[in-house]
Structure formats: structure tokens, C-alpha cells
From TrEMBL:
UniProt-listed PANTHER family: L-ALA--D-GLU ENDOPEPTIDASE, PEPTIDASE-RELATED
Taxonomic lineage from the root: Bacteria, Bacillati, Chloroflexota, Anaerolineae, Anaerolineales
Signal peptide: none
GO molecular function: metalloendopeptidase activity
Signal as UniProt keyword: yes
Top-rank taxon, per record: Bacteria
Protein name: M23 family metallopeptidase
InterPro entries for the chain: Cell_wall_metabolism_enzyme, Dup_hybrid_motif, M23ase_b-sheet_dom
Compositional bias annotation for Low complexity: 106-118
Domain M23ase beta-sheet core: 127-221
Keywords tagged on the record: Signal
Amino acid sequence: MIDSYQSLSVQKVLTNLSAPSNTAPQRDATDPSFQQLLSMAMLDGGLSSGENNGGVGSLMLPLMLLLLEKILSLQATQDVTEEEKPDSPAAASLVDAASSGEAPRGDPGVPSGRPVGGVLTQGYHAHHYGLDFGIPVGTAVKSTMDGKVVYAGWNNQGYGNLVIVENGPYRTYYAHLSEIPVRMGDRVSRGDVVGLSGNTGNSTGPHLHYEIRYEMKPIDPTGQTLR
């Protein structure tokens, strides 16, 4: 027999399924997948009779409840993921470019191209939020977008001499510099020299560490940097 606790659990799941959502399309009991699950749970001895007639309903109800709760959990996770996706077309273009290996073109306010030549010595990964280019000390480092210099100086978090250029939601980082010819507040264009490469900060050899951030969060710059 289905006890009162199971009945309340079913009612709770059904209530959650029909509750309005501001971030995802509505689902209801008319959806074929949900309808089939609910029908299985109510067969012979299910909710409608309240009796145990030896049918699959009373045996499978706990499994159905777990399955329905799992579906709700996955739906909630999907809602959060959708909310975190960038809304800006430029951001979408940059993310698409990173995954496809193609650089966005035409908009000088979006990072594109290499800040230096040289050899890529380390790529972007979970513990390294940028690209490292092995180059001799004193190599000209060029901005990859138009923008404003919002930081120019020593950084105590391992970057050494650091320049940050900002344009809207985008920031580009140029680290381990030997010299900084720009100052905070300067306006720069794509291709302007913003520093000379070096070996300052937490660095094991002369190189440039380059990052792109969107809304303060690091993103993989590989696709739009390496052409």
C-alpha cells in the first residue's frame, strides 16, 4: 500500500513540475515523457485506488519519485547554466571563436591577434588563465584592442610589471614586463606598444603572459589570438 508519505512526495513533485519558471520553458503533465512516468506510477494499486493490488505501481513508485526528482534537478541546473551564458553578441562571438579557432574580425574593441611574435610555451588551462610566449627581454608588446589603460605598474600577485587595457566588458593583461611606457588613463589603439617584455614577477624565463577577461572572468584566448 502507498503510505501517506509517498502520496505527499508525489504531490510535491507534481507541484514542482507545474510551478512557473522565469528562466526556462514551462513543462507540464501533458508532456509525453512525464505523462508516461506518471501513468506507470499509478498502475494497479497506484494513487487513484490507494490500495495494493500487487501491480507495478506500488512497487515502482519510489523509483518513479527518484526519477522525477532527478529530472527536476537537471532542469534547475540547466536554468542556472542558461543564466550564466553571455548575452552580448560580441561575447558570444568571442566564445564561439575560442571554440572554433577563428578570431573575431572588424571590431577594434574586441581582442584579436597576437600581442607579440615568438613561440607559444604554455597554453590556457585550468591553472593557467592565459597564453605564454617565449621572447627575448625588451620585445615590443602590442595591445590587441582599442581601449583605456586601467593598470600600469607592479603587481604583487605574480604578474610582475603588468599592463591592463580595458574596453567595455573586455580586459587584456600583459604581464612580466621589463618596461612600461604607458600610464593609467592613457588611450591606446590595437597595435600600440604598451610594454616591453621581460622576466619580472613569478617567471622562470623571459616571456610574455597574455590574458583576455570578459566581465572580469578569464576566458580562453587561443582561438582569437593564434591565427
